[in-house]
């Protein structure tokens, strides 16, 4: 697994189910001193959907990012 200080790009591909999904995560500072966990997900080859969750400090933002990575890896996503 990559360091949590870098963006993470996960994929889940299953040709038998016609499944080709991605899930991208990153932690970014906001203009107001908070930190945002940026999430993008969808079918490979599309722009997908996105969501930002705000956190008051970097530690809690990285903790949430790590939790999401663990959750997605349990569901079959892999890096790359």
Automatic annotation (TrEMBL):
<protein>
    <submittedName>
        <fullName>Putative DNA-binding WGR domain protein</fullName>
    </submittedName>
</protein>
<dbReference type="InterPro" id="IPR008893">
    <property type="entry name" value="WGR_domain"/>
</dbReference>
<dbReference type="GO" id="GO:0003677">
    <property type="term" value="F:DNA binding"/>
</dbReference>
<dbReference type="Pfam" id="PF05406">
    <property type="entry name" value="WGR"/>
</dbReference>
<dbReference type="InterPro" id="IPR049809">
    <property type="entry name" value="YehF/YfeS-like_WGR"/>
</dbReference>
<feature type="domain" description="WGR">
    <location>
        <begin position="1"/>
        <end position="80"/>
    </location>
</feature>
<dbReference type="InterPro" id="IPR036930">
    <property type="entry name" value="WGR_dom_sf"/>
</dbReference>
<keyword id="KW-0238">DNA-binding</keyword>
